[in-house]
Amino acid sequence: MAGKTVIRAELTEAVYQMSGFPRHKAATLVEQVLGEISDALVGGENVELSGFGVFTVRDKAERVGRNPETGVEVPIEPRRAITFKASDRLKDDINGASVGARE
Questions:
Q1: Phi, psi at residue 28, to the nearest 5°?
Q2: For 17-36, what is each residue's pLDDT tens digit?
Q3: How far apart are CA 16 and CA 22, in angstroms?
Q4: 8-19 vs 23-42: helix axis angle to the nearest 10?
C-alpha cells in the first residue's frame, strides 16, 4: 500500500464492509465524522483521536519569504495552519513495533 492515497470512497467502503451498514449509511457516517472534525478545526478547537493523534490549528504571523528563482522578498500574509501530531501508538504501528511494546 506504499505510495497509495486513501480516498473518501475507500473509507466509505471500509466502513460498509466492517459495519454491515448499507453503503449510503456508511457514506453518511464518513461524511458526518469528517464534517465534525472540520467544523471543530474551523472553530479553532483541537481534535484528539485517541490512539491516532491530535489535529491542532496554529496562527502563523506575517513574515517575509523569498522567491527562490529571483531572490525577491515577498510578504507572506498571516494565516491559520493545521498541524497533526501522531500518537505514540500510531508511530509504533507505522514503524512495525510489536503490540506488547505499547503496553
A1: -60, -45
A2: 999 999 999 999 999 999 99
A3: 6
A4: 130
